[in-house]
Structure formats: structure tokens, C-alpha cells
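Practice record 12: protein with EPU.
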Amino acid sequence: MNKFIVHGPTRLRGEVEISGAKNAVVAILPATLLVDGVSHIENVPRISDVRIIMDILRSLGAEVEWQDNVLTVDSRRITSCEVDYKYAKKLRASYYFMGSLLGRCGKAVVALPGGCALGARPIDQHIKTFKGLGAEVRIEHGSVYCTSASLNSTHIYFDVVSVGATINAMLGACKAKGLTILENVAKEPHIVDVANFLNAMGANISGAGTDVIKIRGVARLGGGSYAVIPDQIEAGTFMMAAAATRGDVLVRNVIPKHMECISGKLREMNVGVEEFDDSIRVFVDRPLQNARVKTMPYPGFPTDMQPQTAVLMATVEGTGSIKESIWESRFRYTEELKRMGADITVSGETATINGGAKLTGAPVKACDLRAGAAMIIAGLVANGRTEIEEIEYIERGYEDIVRKFNALGANIERVTED
Ligand code: EPU
């Protein structure tokens, strides 16, 4: 079993470089299947989710090479359009192979990933889009089967704002005949990044980042190079960690515009936030005050920053609250924080945090990726030794997290025990 041992408390100081965005790259890599050529993807984070997607791409016949942070995918010869359960169960983003294989081969058989730590994760909006594009879709034997002799344009109004369904719709539509219009779409930075990647390869997509995306189908996407944007949530995690430890950290390689929802909340709490062209300094030079947060689709406060924010709130005098409006069970980690001394009450969609309690190190587990990052921040704040189990969740989405925190003055070890 692998664990992180965090020795706290620590005041983080120094500079940290943010990696490429996980949630962009886990969509861009499946999207390379639409390319009849070779794609060079730069700024790819070395995380386990990327390794799983490489295995899937190879199982479909693509040739994949990874050198430093550049991933090269040659998808000229695709020999299969089926993603097996052994891969799909390991990551949610396997659903992007539905849109990309359908667009590439007119057929996709992708195993459903099964249970999820965040609660129910329906894909009805993805399926609605594929059907709108003219595909026949059925679920049998644990897999989604999509088939279409030829994909046609469609006009979709999404019932919920969904990152995954928006991206899958772009993947399915970019080679469909005619003009597809998508309304009530997600606007996250990674939506824009996937659209930019597809356009760089020859697609004709406009409006990504607004409520309406228009896709004029093209016959062919050719190869090329593309650099993935910096990870908004990784940057936000280090910003929260800097504030929670009352440190002073320059977070480098970020797009400050993407961080406004997080920077604004930190400023409201009295945290110092200074923006530069591609970096943000976070520091604490006066007493902090607690706040209320509601998670929302972008440009609202991201659900993926919710657990890290709860740790900051636990360190600040006064009462703070978090309302989770995206995932139904994203508060499981609060039980772990309570074991470290935090005073948190969860009722339905809202967590109320009575801040200011002294946290002490304890054995805890990472309930999911972002909850795991929150445990690290709690361990940095707490007095004594925090042992974090189930760190595989954390390593799915954060590149070199131990090295990066230790370079800021943290004392974290990664240990392997029988
Ligand atoms: N939803 C539906 N029907 C659908 C799709 C979604 O009802 O067909 C609902 C979901 O149940 C949820 C809401 O819509 O209540 C939003 O879900 P969305 O589809 O936007 O989530 P996702 O695409 O499955 C991505 C990220 C998550 C992040 C969410 C919200 C990836 C691979 N995952 O998930 O990231 O929390 O958007 O921003 O991009 C993470 O990185 O730790 C993570 C969980």
C-alpha cells in the first residue's frame, strides 16, 4: 500500500509551476482518434489517468509515444472501436471514446465505468446528443453501443450543464454533415481547450466558452501540434494551500482569467492575491475571515475546489459554509477532516464549518482525487504526522505533487508498505 506521510505544520513559501490541465488532456487524447494523421500534444501531465488513456489508445490500434511532457499519437490505423471494461472502470473520462470513436468509425462500444465516489454520474445528455446526430444507441451487457451509417448535424438544448456531454457532442459532431448547434453548454476552460485542439487539427467550431457552440462538420482532420492549457484546479489547490498555511507562494504558468472565481473568494476572505501575466502570488498578511461558497459550473466556483476550500475555512475563525450543487456525495471527506479536529456539520447539500479549531495530524484516507489534495493541505496545517491512504486517487490527477509541495518547504514522504 502506498501512503503519503505529511509532517506539519508548515508555512509554504516559494514558487510552484503548474502542469497541463488533466480535464483537458483526458478529452484531447481520445479526440486524437478523429485525426487522420499524427498529433503532437505538448504540456501533458505525467499522471496515471493519462497512462490509462494511452493504454486504451493502443488497444484501439493507435501508436502512442511519450517523451518528457509531449505525447505523440499516430491514429492513422485504428483496428478496433471497443473500449473494454478493464480500462473503462479505471476512469470516467473513458466516455470520451464514445464521441471520438463514433466520429471516427461510425461505431463505438464503450463499457460503462460503474460506481463513482462523487455520487450518481448519469450520461443521458451524452446519449441524447449521439441520438440527435443520427446514431442508434443502446446499453447492453454493461456497455454503450453507438452505431451510425452517417452522422448528421443536430440542434441540442442540454437539460443540465455538463462538461462531459458538451465535449462528447463536439467530438461526435465535428465530422458530421452540416451545422450542429449546442445550447446551454458548459464553459469551463477545458471545453475551450478541446475546441481549440480540434480547430487546430482542421475542425470548424465556434462559440466555445459561451452558452452556444456551433460546429460546421468537416470531412477530415489532419495532424499537427497543440499545447494543453495549465490546470486551473491544480493551480487553485496550491493557492488554497498557500492561504491555509498562511504562506506566500507564487503560482506560475497559470491563466489568471481562469482563476478569477477562486481569486475572488480568497480576496473576500482577506487573503492577498496578486495577479501577473501568467502567475499569481498568494499570501497572508492580515487576519482572515470566513465565507460562504456555492459550487457552480464555470465561471462559478468549481466543485473540484470544494474540499480544498473546506480546509482553508476550517483554519479561519468564524463560521463558513459550502453549498455543493454539482455532485450529490462530495462531502465524505469531511469525516476525515473531523478526525483531524475540524468542526464541520453536513446537512444535505450544505457543509457548515466552525473554523479556528487546531488541527492535529491523524491517519486519514483520500476519498477521491480532490478530497485527497485536501487531506494533504490539512496535513500541512495540522500539528504532527498525517498519514494519507489511498493516494492512488491523488496520483490520478496531480503531477509530482510531493516534489512540488516539498519545494515549497513541506515535509511529505511517499512510502510503500506491505
Ligand atoms: N449530468 C447529468 N446527465 C449527464 C451528464 C451530467 O445529469 O448526461 C449531471 C451530473 O450528474 C452532475 C452535473 O450534470 O450533477 C455535471 O456533470 P458533468 O457532466 O459536468 O461532469 P463530468 O463531465 O462527468 C467533469 C470533470 C469533473 C468535474 C465535473 C464538474 C472530467 C473528466 N471530469 O465531470 O472532475 O467535477 O466535470 O465540473 O472532466 C475531477 O477532476 O476531480 C473531477 C471529478
